[in-house]
Amino acid sequence: MRARTTLIRPALVLALVVSLAGATAGSTAAAPVDGPDTSSFQKLSAPIAPVPATEGADAPADESVARATALSSPAFPDTEWATFRDLNLTRINYAGVNPVIRHGALDSLATTWVNSQSNSTDPQLDDNIESKVPAGSLGGVQLMYSYVGGTTAEMQEFLDWITVENLRYDAIDPELTDSGIGIAATATGLYAYYIIVGYTHSTPASDELPLYRFYKPSAGTHFYSTSAGERNTVIGFPEYRYEGLVAYIKGPQATSTTVPLQDLNRFFLASAGTHFYTSAPAEYQAVLTYPQYSLDGVAGRVAAAPGTGLSAMHRFFRPASGTHFYSANPAEVEAVKGLPGYTYEGTAFFLRVAS
């Protein structure tokens, strides 16, 4: 068992590599490549300089697409999301800091790097990571762990050590905001590589509430919440994938002299385990009479007409399941329009998209 980590703080850029061997219960454990002492931990430092906004790899043309869309590699989507969820639960439950979001460009970097290390029993830090992360990162450190050999119980103990004993010193930094992860299979097990970066994001105005989004793959729909407490609870549900802060809506008591505001009502459809959102008064009254829907309440207020700084929230209907899909991301909207099984219903309301 071996670990390499940097403990230089403040930790604003963090890379984590984990090599897992003997992961299957009852399997024969691989011999440790560094000799019989599988309980030793080694630490290596590798500071990363800040990356000015004019340097580094270019972000995708529309990075909000990457943040607003469920991300996963084809090979290990469930494992990646489970690991990502555990990281956020550590941040929430241990340190009381905000969860990080998955970032498409960082996912690509992590996947590329871990694949380049997949034939090695001694994976290395990426010495050039600071020149690869999207421009504007706040700088920081890399963090790498490797595990080789041992029993399933020893592997779990090692992973617990990562989550409880070490991530709490680095990955719980409240200034970390975005992450990427890649996992590759090797002859000795699995390598999992994190990149966790601090970026400056938009913040809500005094009369606004943050709108968080989750994707539920089994239903093909999204769940939205303005409650940080509810967000933190749902992050722990394995059927949901946390996509981050995607927009802002007005608080329940907000008023406006520039655009008309309407209550955004949230209903729960128990038969599908999904939610329905409407700000149209007539539709709200109609849905109240449908026995299959239960009213959760008013999430906040949204604009009923276009306005400065506002974007349209589009709505789709899925006839096969009787559920709805919502998105304020133009690229995602156009992509879903081309998918079978989704009927475009038009603009539902307007809100301010987060950046």
Automatic annotation (TrEMBL):
Known Pfam families for this protein? DUF5648
Annotated membrane-spanning segments are none
Alphabetical keyword list:
Signal
Q: Where is the signal peptide?
A: 1-30
Domain spans labelled DUF5648: 197-261, 265-350
Q: What is this protein called?
A: DUF5648 domain-containing protein
Query: Which organism is the protein's source?
Result: Cellulomonas xylanilytica
